[in-house]
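Assemble and predict.
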Amino acid sequence: MRGLDLAADVGALTAALVDLPSVSGSESELADAVEDALRRQGRHSRQGRQGRLEVHRDGDAVLARTDAGRPRRVVLAGHLDTVPVADNLPARVEGDLLYGCGTSDMKSGVAVMLRLAATLPDPAYDLTWVCYDNEEVEAAKNGLGRVARNSPDWLDADLAIVLEPTAGMVEAGCQGTLRATVHLSGRRAHSARSWLGSNAIHAAAPVLARLADYRPRSVEIDGCTYREGLNAVGISGGVAGNVIPDACAVDVNYRFAPDRTEQAALAHVRDVFGGYEVTLVDSAPSAPPSLAAPAAAAFVAAVGTAPVAKQGWTDVARFAVLGIPAVNYGPGDPNLAHTREEHVLVPRITECERTLRAYLSTGG
Amino acid sequence: MRGLDLAADVGALTAALVDLPSVSGSESELADAVEDALRRQGRHSRQGRQGRLEVHRDGDAVLARTDAGRPRRVVLAGHLDTVPVADNLPARVEGDLLYGCGTSDMKSGVAVMLRLAATLPDPAYDLTWVCYDNEEVEAAKNGLGRVARNSPDWLDADLAIVLEPTAGMVEAGCQGTLRATVHLSGRRAHSARSWLGSNAIHAAAPVLARLADYRPRSVEIDGCTYREGLNAVGISGGVAGNVIPDACAVDVNYRFAPDRTEQAALAHVRDVFGGYEVTLVDSAPSAPPSLAAPAAAAFVAAVGTAPVAKQGWTDVARFAVLGIPAVNYGPGDPNLAHTREEHVLVPRITECERTLRAYLSTGG
């Protein structure tokens, strides 16, 4: 295996990462390459002020950290995996654009992280790198979640920057998400004698009306406006073409602002559907923007543009659960994530690297 | 193969028919036995006034008819097939009850038909027997429908009596049935940014409200009251737990009174769901009670109890399409059809045979 050159130009490093395919569940080759590069990096610089990097491996998650006795610590986090390749490998350059699976989501972000590990000899913060597996699949497999369970001390920091694609914006915190099912019941009968039954699908009419009439909140926190949403994402009912159905289920998804906990979100959903049977499917917590935290405020100042709310759920919530302020900030384009035409603007990767370098070098 | 004894007691004949299993699609052995018995019957009585029966075979449908020059003709019709056996064979007797798959639906009716073929030497009507296959499965396989396409002359008559289970009541005509789908559309979006989409499931709220608020008609014809019904029998929608759905489909079933044609029924459904996209799935016509027809009026008088509307769709509609008045009248218990505990009251089979014998012997 030819090693990754972390000192290379960040566009070239992104292309090298893209050319090591790492669809969720198949990240080992890339994780090995990242681990090897980080260990070499540690050896090469052990005489410098940065000191040797401590490297930790957990499955296909690779972590590294400095221990320079700085007063504050910043985590740089990014997932190594991609959605399935869609005939869009190897990486190819067209002018300022780098095309390929994972270019935006999020190997350009990982490239920025790794390059800083090789080229920032004297950071103002102690730093932790967290490269992890299985972000693009079910939450139970998520490598960051596994690290949080196995080695939460490795995630401890004053700020976590998750380099998911934000097109160079600071997207603060994130919405929480909750899925629940509203159950309607009835009584089966032959549809030729429908008066003997009770139609559970008809009983869903007021449930759907409540959803259609629902007015979601917009909640401002630290200057960021989180827009909520409560939506049916599935409905099913019916036994056969000649049977009055005795059951109907409406699956709803509530995206909630960071002023609500998962418990408060569930109470709200139960309140909206008062009088109906509601069962929780699953939920994930919101994350507050936490922009008042000193390391976060300094980062926002370094980026220089107004932060916005993250309208979506991301792994920043896993840091928030541990009490660690976390923001999303990365060079990729979120609108291109998961598309066949996925690409990234190379000058934006360079800009992202420059901004982070300035912030981490000076302490803001 | 031991032949069927059509002159046997009608309870014993029912048991013999039940003991020749004939789940839909596997009626050949029973059809062969019925054909053989009817052909033998013709030979045995060719010196009598009834004359030889003309026998016709179409797949596993077996038909026979007299040609005695009577002014009117009556069809006796019944299906040979049953739903799948449910550990309820062979037939067994408990007191007045005969248990087993097909006892009520409808080998007791077929036994009455066949016994009359052997023991009614001088009927007042010319008679046609129609024993057919595949009534319990999809309409396209129905043996009566096939005969109507291949040999409609064989079904020509002044009255058709379909010996489906009615517990000895005359159930006149039948409802029509129509299935349609109401389609809702929207625009997909990530559920974290639901304001970018348009939720097709929410759009179903007024459709379900119209169904819930719908007041079905009751229509009286020839003294029989047909109750209609318009019901959702299925609903489906949803892409994934994090996607605003762009499509939802509500499947409805309209059971309509005999004053409406299939075309009128579809127009009504389109009217109820005015403003929405409605597609027809399938439909089957209603059948009028036709109790004013002389052969029908005489039959009702012979039975001696007030006829009631058939709340359901049956093969009488296939006769109605050909302009032939048709009623449901049989010894089975409709509430026991398709159950594991299926049975029939033997005295009711005898009573049904006696009533039909009196009617067919005297002309009413």
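The radius of gyration of chain B is 24 Å.
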